């Protein structure tokens, strides 16, 4: 869509590197009290006072992590920020700042970069994080986005992956699998479009799934919920690679086992319908599909009352002794070893 | 050189994404007291107590910022770290942590990535910074490195670009222009090699220049020097794009003018010899050549005694009122307006 000949195209070289950075970063506002100096010097300057600082980073590559054929640039900018903020949320910290580096080949006009930065700005504004630095340069091929997210938390708030006890309950926020099926729907529409470029996709039936893929949200609200419930998870991770993969990470870090119950998995009704249409097992999608950016955490059994009947949380299993292994308990009550089959970025080209 | 058929080649897909990250990050040690948790969770956790935090980020792209034909991977890893630490030094802060993200196409075997990480580890160890996070993924083309550097400083130590007064002295560390001529020498050798692959380059005459290009150092020592001299610059920037470009940045941020004196430029004798051989004006190289990673700063005139005769520092000019403009005063005592002609990353492909 960025090849549309009717739209305005301004060559990036017309602006030059510094002109481009000035142009793209002019809309960023500083709202966090911890940001003393944002963009405009050799480095940003931050002041966290007595808070601990949490840092995470991600690299997104066109053709590997996203396909511009069905990912509009504005959504991509938004999602790139969300993916990183989600890691900060997974530490039970509050995201406060990000740096954004972008490399593009010259097939991208200025207007395309503006769309990307519109999405970045929307996410930064929405989640109240300051864009405090970055780098804009040319690439040999495609679009590359690198984001580092910074957050703050009190020392006793921070939740690691390795604190799960062997009798803890396993809990997930929101629902799982929808983002993956959203991608499958978009991939199918791309195939249809390649055969018949005049076809107009009707995505109404898939609206929720597509939105989960194109516009995921970082669960910055969960930290606030925990505060209100006076609840601190014993371990936590975000779901980027898929539920099974993340459960295995938690178990290995915490040296515990786990029983995950198929009948407890929070699956959206739309996902069930579309899985039938695609003839795919919805449990497989819920367990292995990634990019949900929900939070997976464990709590002490004694905290059960704090979360029961809370619509944000679903108890999907419980931890066990390490020697018992990591299993899915099916609806038919059979026990299957859980394996990570999530997305792996380093398959042979 | 990474295409040498005799060496061991392990395909990246044999390890998988998590195996690769574990393998590459196993040598990183934590030495900074501010690092509470490094690699291994959703995010790193840092504690800067009452210090301010300084953050900078850079993206390096093969074919744009480096050429693997003459940049060995180990040197590239080292330089990628140095480039980022230099930005922290330019704030008069102490570098403490970095995150390192790398994307590679599958033409790179594991051994190539190991070489790259050897250079990264060497720099991290040498400059005592902790590698606290990162991302390793595949690229569609070439090698991409994204580094975020973090540093700490007391509030009253931090030096910005905008503090230069109109009677301040302009000072530079080390010498300028050598890294650029080192690149020219390497580019010439690449041409020779392409014509005759059996030719062996004799780089003895160019050793210093080539080292400045392939193994620049971050001036982490300058902060210590300032402490010992009880000196605080009024403004500071590091020289990545070229002296003229950085002087203009300082002047514009500080709203002052500048007179730069040609006869004061610190130029290494080897640079002068090689400029004659290449028939290039050494002043042009000293002013416009980038990648020196030296520090450019201004001090109050009253601090002159603190730095005079110090071999680390050269006074190369003085600031003026903004209305007087930014000029080079030549040996012949003519006044030429200084323009930024440094490297620009966004030229038309």
Explain what this protein looks like in three dimensions:
The structure is a homodimer of 349-residue chains. With 349 residues, chain A is an alpha+beta fold. In chain A, 32% of the residues lie in helices and 23% in strands. In chain A, a hairpin with a 6-residue loop joins strand 1 and strand 2 (44-46). In chain A, helix 2 packs parallel to helix 3 and helix 4 crosses helix 5. The two termini of chain A are 26 Å apart. Mean pLDDT of chain A is 91; it is low at 1-5 and 342-349. Chains A and B meet through helix 1, strand 2, strand 3, strand 4 and strand 5 of A and helix 1, strand 2, strand 3, strand 4 and strand 5 of B.
Compact description:
Two copies of one chain form a homodimer. In chain A, strands 8-10-7-11-9-12-13 form a seven-stranded mixed β-sheet, sandwiched between helices.
What's the N-to-C terminus distance of chain A? 26 Å
User: Measured on Cα atoms, how large is the radius of gyration of chain A?
Assistant: 21 Å
Oligomer: homodimer
Helix content of chain A: 25-40%
For the sheet with most strands of chain A, the description reads: 7 strands, mixed
Count of individual beta strands of chain A = 13
Q: What's the overall average pLDDT of chain A, rounded? A: 91
Shape of chain A: globular
Q: Give the neighbour order of strands across the main sheet of chain A.
A: 8-10-7-11-9-12-13
Proportion of residues in extended strands of chain A: 15-25%
Return the string of H and E elements of chain A. HEEEHEHEEEHHHEHEHHEHEEE
Q: Tell me which protein chains meet in the greatest interface and how many residues each side has.
A: A-B, 77 and 77 residues
The number of distinct helices of chain A, counting runs of at least 4 residues, comes to: 10
User: pLDDT under 50 segments of chain A (min length 5)?
Assistant: 1-5, 342-349
Structural class of chain A: alpha+beta
């Amino acid at each position: 869509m960025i090849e549309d000949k009717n739209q305005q195209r301004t060559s990036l070289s017309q602006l030059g590197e510094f002109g481009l950075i000035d142009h793209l970063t002019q809309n960023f506002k500083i709202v966090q009290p911890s940001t003393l100096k944002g963009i405009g010097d050799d480095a940003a300057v931050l002041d966290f006072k007595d808070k601990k600082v949490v840092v995470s980073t991600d690299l997104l590559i066109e053709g590997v992590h996203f396909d511009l054929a069905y990912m509009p640039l504005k959504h991509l900018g938004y999602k790139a920020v969300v993916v990183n903020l989600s890691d900060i949320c997974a530490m039970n910290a509050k995201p406060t700042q990000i740096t954004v580096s972008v490399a593009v080949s010259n097939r991208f006009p200025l207007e395309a970069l503006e769309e990307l930065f519109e999405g970045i700005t929307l996410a930064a504004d929405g989640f109240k994080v300051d864009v405090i630095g970055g780098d804009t340069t040319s690439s040999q091929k495609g679009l590359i986005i690198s984001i580092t997210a910074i957050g703050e938390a009190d020392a006793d708030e921070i939740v690691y992956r390795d604190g799960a006890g062997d009798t803890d309950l396993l809990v997930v926020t929101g629902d799982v699998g929808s983002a993956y099926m959203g991608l499958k729907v978009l991939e199918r529409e791309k195939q249809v479009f390649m055969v018949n470029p005049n076809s107009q996709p009707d995505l109404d039936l898939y609206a929720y799934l597509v939105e989960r893929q194109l516009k995921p949200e970082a669960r910055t609200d969960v930290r606030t919920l925990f505060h209100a419930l006076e609840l601190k998870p014993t371990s936590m991770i975000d779901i980027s690679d898929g539920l099974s993969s993340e459960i295995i990470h938690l178990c290995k870090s915490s040296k515990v086992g786990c029983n995950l119950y198929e009948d407890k998995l929070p699956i959206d009704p739309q996902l069930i319908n579309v899985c039938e249409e695609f003839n795919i097992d919805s449990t497989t999608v819920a367990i292995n599909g990634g990019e949900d950016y929900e939070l997976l955490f464990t709590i002490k059994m004694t905290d059960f009352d704090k979360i029961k009947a809370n619509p944000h949380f679903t108890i999907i299993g419980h931890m066990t002794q390490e020697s018992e292994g990591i299993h899915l308990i099916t609806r038919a009550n059979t026990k299957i070893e859980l394996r990570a089959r999530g997305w792996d970025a380093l398959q042979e080209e």
